[in-house]
Amino acid sequence: MAPIEPPPPERSGPSPWVWVVMGGVALLIGAVVLVLVLRSQGSGPLVVGTDVSLDAISQTGGDCVTTVHFTAHGSVSGTGTITYRFDRSDGQSTGNTQLSVDGNSGFELTEDWRFAGVHNGGGTMVFHIVAPTTREVRHDVTVRCP
């Protein structure tokens, strides 16, 4: 008679598919943590470039109405808030306004100045960046109608 072999040992612990699921969950948690860490680092504090400029385009319509469209633009890097304002030589001002910036890009901000009726003269528009650093650019305009 042949020797009797003992039955194979029973497997202890979780089945193999449980390990696969646990591995997938661990990878997912790791990916979420990585995304959160990278987001929290951001792209650094906001830095405004030295290339800030102010351009103007005039548009004259009927009845001697001239609108001067001013555009301020420049480069930025990092994340934060720019505080700026437009001041006109006639005393009008937009007051301090804030713009949130996220990432490496630039900004383009516009302001219009309207001259109505017969006019021979002009003025100066000044664009100020108040924070996070200070910058100031100005543009003189001359408006004649007729």
Ends apart, CA distance between termini: 125 Å
Helix content bin: 10-25%
In the CATH hierarchy, what is the architecture of one domain at level 2? Sandwich
CATH topology-level name of one domain: Immunoglobulin-like
In summary, what is this structure?
The chain has 146 residues and is an alpha+beta fold. It has one helix at 16-41; strands at 47-48, 53-61, 65-77, 79-88, 97-102, 105-115, 119-131, 135-145.
Describe this structure in words.
The protein has one helix at 16-41, and strands at 47-48, 53-61, 65-77, 79-88, 97-102, 105-115, 119-131, 135-145. Strands 1, 2, 3 and 6 form a four-stranded antiparallel sheet that branches. Strands 5-4-7-8 form a four-stranded antiparallel sheet, with no helix packed on it. It has a domain at 47-145: Immunoglobulins (Immunoglobulin-like). The protein is of the alpha+beta class and 146 residues long. The mean pLDDT is 85.
